[in-house]
Specification:
This protein is an alpha/beta fold and about 350 residues long. The protein has two domains: about 100 residues; about 230 residues, Rossmann fold (3-Layer(aba) Sandwich). A seven-stranded mixed sheet has the order 3-2-1-4-5-7-6, sandwiched between helices. Helix 7 links the parallel strand 1 and strand 2. The longest helix is centred in the first third of the chain and has 98 residues.
């Protein structure tokens, strides 16, 4: 276009001179027209260069798009491979969890068998090891509740390993720091007693199931077969009381009696902690509560708060244990805040903490 414009300009040059003499105004118009044509020609060249540059960019982008698409395909394939690997790992993890569970059960069975062999070696295979002579009212009045089942084996099978229970109960240690003597009511396999021993806190445990008391003594812990409320009513000197997974085994009258007796026996500032299944979490009814046939009924935390305050305890705190929360929730839906708030409450009712602890200070 630039060459054509110059040629036209050259051919029109004689006419420009003639027009300039004959028609000065027309010459001005022709000059302006020629200049405009030249500017348009230059602009056209620039536009062509821009169009060519755009074509080059499009070509480059097209090549990059092809590369990007190939990379996406590679990444997608890698994701598929990783997902396949994760599926395999999930199975491995599940097998490891099952193996850990079985190992814990075997360890518990080993402990129990060792305990029984020790008894046999002492010539008492068919008798319970003699405990310290109980005072009046301290007999194992409730032990008949377990006569139909080997509760030691039952606890090992469903409760979890001793190490797991110790880890869960360790969160209560801070409340007993500085205590001179602690009573563990329903001491079971002695997890809490062992925690007290490891932290140099003097403690004694009582349990109505004699094999538990004997097992604790075999492990070097202070324990005896006795009914907790009766034992507490006749003892002095406890500034801390723990009852883990006990009150769900009691009637309302027994719970009130336990609270009143604890209040009478504890000094000012003494602490009472009772851990129990949480009826506000519906998952306990399908996961744990009815597994144990010796359970009477779950107790609502606000019922416990009322009973403790009514007995005179000044500070009553409810703690929902995070370590008892199931590993499942209802996932939120993006952009549905009101719905998500409602479902969060539903999720808490279904999958909230399965245990709670009521912590009361005199």
């Amino acid at each position: 276009m630039n060459i054509i414009a110059r040629a036209v300009h050259f051919l029109l040059k004689p006419f420009h001179r003639l027009n300039k003499r004959l028609f000065p105004e027309t010459d001005i118009n022709l000059t302006q027209l020629s200049e405009t044509l030249e500017r348009l020609t230059e602009e056209n060249c620039r536009l062509r260069e821009q169009v060519n540059e755009i074509h080059r960019i499009q070509q480059h982008n097209s090549e990059r798009t092809d590369i990007f698409q190939k990379n996406i395909e590679v990444v997608s394939e890698n994701v598929r491979n990783i997902n396949a690997m994760l599926d395999g790992y999930d199975k491995v993890i599940l097998n490891l969890q099952n193996l850990n569970t079985e190992t814990a059960r075997l360890t518990a069975d080993h402990d129990r068998l060792s305990f029984m062999l020790n008894r046999i070696s002492r010539g008492s295979a068919n008798e319970t090891l003699p405990a310290a002579a109980p005072a009046a009212g301290k007999e194992c009045a409730g032990s008949d509740s377990y006569s139909a089942v080997d509760y030691f084996d039952f606890e090992n099978y469903f409760r979890g390993s001793r190490e797991l229970i110790k880890k869960r109960q360790a969160e209560y240690l801070a409340y007993f720091k500085g205590c001179k003597r602690v009573l563990d009511i329903g001491c079971g396999r002695g997890e809490f007693l062992e925690l007290m021993q490891e932290n140099n806190i003097p403690a004694v445990g009582v349990d109505t199931y004699s094999p538990f008391a004997d097992y604790c003594k075999e492990k070097g812990l202070t324990a005896l077969c006795a009914e907790g409320i009766a034992y507490l009513s006749e003892e002095q000197g406890f500034d801390g009381i723990f009852a883990g997974q006990v009150i769900e085994h009691l009637t309302l009258g027994q719970i009130v009696s336990l609270i009143d007796t604890a209040y009478d026996k504890l000094p000012e500032g003494g602490v009472l902690i009772m851990e129990t299944p949480n009826p506000q979490s519906l998952s306990i009814y399908v996961n744990a509560f009815y597994l144990d046939p010796s359970h009477v009924k779950p107790v609502h935390p606000e019922t416990m708060r009322y009973l403790l305050k009514n007995a005179g305890f000044r500070n009553v705190e409810i703690v929902y244990t995070e370590n008892s929360r199931p590993d499942i929730t209802i996932p939120p839906i993006k952009g549905e805040d009101e719905f998500n708030q409602a479902m969060s409450r539903v999720s808490e009712m279904l999958f909230g903490s399965q245990d709670y602890a009521v912590i009361a200070r005199k």
